[in-house]
Specification:
Rossmann fold, 4-stranded antiparallel sheet, binds adenosine-5'-diphosphate, binds magnesium ion
Length: about 300
């Protein structure tokens, strides 16, 4: 998505983002009264306190919040890797903590920040990892399934034998995505999916996510700092601050919510830059340009 599109999205609603699902779509994630606490005794500190969040089938929810506000920990709660001190996290009708490692991959796919591929494994072995661990399919079927997923994310058969160190940032994200989707989970969690990518790779990755969301009927929760990604993809935005979700709604609605983080995030220096007309688009309307900002 272009800078102009981000600007339009603020004014008129997301142009490129998928349509939100109906209000009564069934919940895929239900979080009620969640407290997450790390440390013990005097050292104990709460990352989440009385946090509520519902994610419905077909949504692409962007989770935003300042650094260290517990976004990644919230994804880990949905994966069942971190457990509630209080409250409940229900994923596809069951407590997330009950999923277990093997069960998790067929229910929830996770794209970790920085891709997190196994550097000693080939691309194919990375993608096939969860199927191998499960140990129920013969070798050749596992390889076939992994090749299907590689194609699905736009990679070629010849990429299968490569080592992660020989891949570009955009390709690493694609491999990580193929790995997350190997067991066809209905829910996909993305932690900063476009961080560190150049603008072109980032746009391409957003386009891929949009296609897969539609083709596979996925529900997606993504943590992102990138406004272009947010406006290109999200059907709803949830803001994490003060240890809970302080507001959620369509992007252009959330930008109007009065809170210092939201003002800074959408309208601060970085936000203005993200929403400013790109230098290559001289005909862009100056409507949202801030004083003193470069054209
Ligand atoms: N396993 C852990 N043990 C102790 N503290 C943790 C653990 N995981 C995360 N934290 C702390 O929880 C807070 C939220 O972390 P995180 O969810 O990673 O933030 P972010 O919103 O930047 O993703 C941070 O203060 C972090 O240091
Ligand atoms: Mg994080």
């Amino acid at each position: 998505m272009t800078r102009d599109a981000a600007e339009d999205a603020i004014a008129t609603g997301p142009a490129a983002a998928p349509e939100p699902p109906p209000q009564d779509a069934p919940p895929v994630v239900e979080i009620r009264g969640l407290s997450t606490v790390f440390g013990k005794g005097d050292e104990a500190f709460a990352v989440h306190e009385n946090l509520d969040l519902t994610v419905r089938r077909g949504e692409i929810l962007a989770l935003v919040g300042g650094s260290g506000t517990g976004k990644t920990v919230l994804l880990r709660q949905m994966l069942g890797l971190t457990h509630p001190a209080k409250g409940s996290v229900t994923v596809l009708g069951r407590p997330a903590a009950e999923m277990g490692r093997a069960g998790a991959a067929s229910r929830v796919g996770m794209l970790f920040q920085h891709g997190a591929l196994f550097s000693a494994f080939s691309v194919l072995d990375n993608v096939a990892f969860a199927l191998r661990e499960q140990g129920t399919l013969p070798k050749d079927l596992i390889a076939d399934a992994a090749m299907v997923k590689l194609r699905m994310v736009g990679l070629k058969p010849e990429h299968a034998t490569r080592s992660p160190s020989d891949l570009s940032g955009g390709m690493i994200k694609r491999v990580a995505l193929a790995r997350a989707l190997i067991m066809d989970p209905p829910l996909l969690l993305l932690d900063e999916p476009t961080a560190g990518l150049d603008p072109n790779s980032s746009d391409e990755f957003c386009e891929l996510l949009r296609e897969l969301h539609a083709a596979l009927g996925l529900t997606v929760v993504m943590v992102t700092h990138d406004l272009d990604t947010l406006f290109a993809l999200s059907t709803r935005v949830a803001v994490l601050a003060e240890k809970r979700v302080i507001t959620s709604g369509p992007p252009q609605e959330v930008t109007r919510f009065e809170h210092p983080f939201i003002q800074q995030f959408f309208l601060g220096e970085r936000g203005r830059r993200a929403m400013a007309p790109a230098p290559s688009a001289p005909s862009a309307p100056p409507a949202a340009a801030a004083p003193g900002q470069e054209a």
